[in-house]
Amino acid sequence: MYDVIVVGSGISGLYAALNARRAGASVALISKSSLLRSNSAVASGGINAVIKSTRNDSCREHVADTIKGSDNLGRLAAINAMVSGGKEIIEDLVKMGVVFDCDENGDIAQRPFGGTKAKRTCYIGDRTGASITQTLLMQCRKEGVIIFHNHMILSIAMFKEKLSGITLLRRSDSQVIAFACKSLILAGGGYAGIYRGHSTNSQESSGDLLAIALRAKMRLVNMEFVQFHPTTLLGSGTLISEAARGEGAIIVDETGKRFTDELQTRDKLSRDIVRHQLAGRKVFLDFRHLSEETIDKKLPSARKNALNGAGIDILNELLPITPSAHYTMGGIWTRNDTSTDIDNIFACGECAYSGVHGANRLGGNSLLEAAYFGRLAGTEAARAAKKELFHPIDYALVNRESNYVEMILGGENRFNINTMRRNLGNNLYKNAGVFRTHDSLANSLEYIHYLIKVSSGLRCINKERNNNVELMSIIEFKNALIVAEAMVMSAMAREESRGAHYREDYPDTNDQKFGRDTILQRLAGTFLRITFESYLSSDWWHRIRKFFHAQ
């Protein structure tokens, strides 16, 4: 029993857990696998912040760039709050021991990123995310956050429409257990991993929390917006950070021709690269004009990944690249204070729709969003927990989840889980990737429905209960199919091109009809309803309830 439970061990989850603990709550942090396998831990480029206003940059400019990058679908109040809090986040990280790279004057160094020419991205070489994650993890342990790794959330437990806790699969013995809590924070990452074989994400990024939220009748928002990172290793999807282009690497074809602007937003750059590939060209990232000192000091991971992943020394050779699914702008609907459709449940990070990215995320904004809204979620969850009591957990739910696990463990398997995951990824990349049409999306949806039907025949070949990787993979895949269906249906409904969502049959932006969020909600059974709604930043009823609850 804990006052606050946080699901997710990336920057948003760690920051949330830390701040809930600092507010006096007892806190448990749940991680599905090892603690350093989150997307935050492999985020390389940096974290955006206006440290001091100058002639070249200011908070106003950061807000304007973010809104423009969002293709006018960003939530202004949330963007303003995040940008205004950027300097404080950097200062807080430095106090905890994060050592950012500095310039010759001893000030924090900043590099330019796509979507802006201002230098506002703070960095630690090209391993920024890993350094921040490790520091936050050590701080959480130091301040008394209880951490459970290798525990997978299965469902949200409710009692008389009140949050009572969560059910979990304990990986060590495949046992279903229940944790009680007064407040719950969902911070388990995005769903780009469903593009298996065409993604920079680990296979764990299957959108579990979004599938669980949808089953709990919570709203999902803008699921169609999937950002493809333009520079990943051809054949493996290994990320080559935007830091490379920020430090001067250029994109060329096999003739050596530079055919695009490397520092435009990721959606536009990905489309330029794919168009060039469809015309029969090969695309490369060229570092050869950069000095060895610059590469080894500022881009060591890029050199290492290129050598290990492709056998190429970027000092002397061109590096073959292609876009891969990288980040998802859609997620669980939240208010500006990170609260959701269910009282005492909060969401932050990539699994949440905070509204700051809109239809397309600017590089460097994701780590700032994770830190800012993670900190806010921790504070809000702790405050809510102080006014709440524990509610009973209905163990019929635990039994139901136990029976579900036993069913997957038992019986004879009929299909190959790894083949099905790869086939889903290939289909999504081809039909719901950088370019989309109604027909391609319809083909993808038909295939998803086929996979949903046959996935009922998936069983564990290995019947061992201890650390059964196959069991978790099957549960992840079933969640991935729910998320893929939501994503493709949202993409079919949005008959326009905006940000990362590009419809070849509707190449123009239609503000009058689609200048609003795509809201997806589960009705009875498995039926989904899609509507387009504007977000009201002044949610007065919620604010009034919150005020009187605080009193």
Topology:
Blueprint: E1 2-7, H1 11-22, E2 27-31, H2 39-42, E3 47-48, H3 59-69, H4 76-84, H5 86-96, E4 110-112, E5 119-122, H6 128-142, E6 146-149, E7 151-159, E8 162-170, E9 175-186, H7 208-215, E10 220-221, E11 226-233, H8 242-246, E12 250-253, H9 266-278, E13 283-286, H10 292-298, H11 300-310, E14 319-328, E15 331-333, E16 345-347, E17 352-353, H12 365-386, H13 395-409, H14 417-431, H15 438-454, H16 469-493, H17 511-514, E18 517-522, E19 528-533, H18 540-550
Helix pairs in contact: 1-6, 1-12, 3-4, 7-16, 14-15, 14-16, 15-16
Q: Notable features of this structure?
A:
19% strand, alpha/beta, FAD/NAD(P)-binding domain, Flavocytochrome C3, Chain A, domain 1, single chain
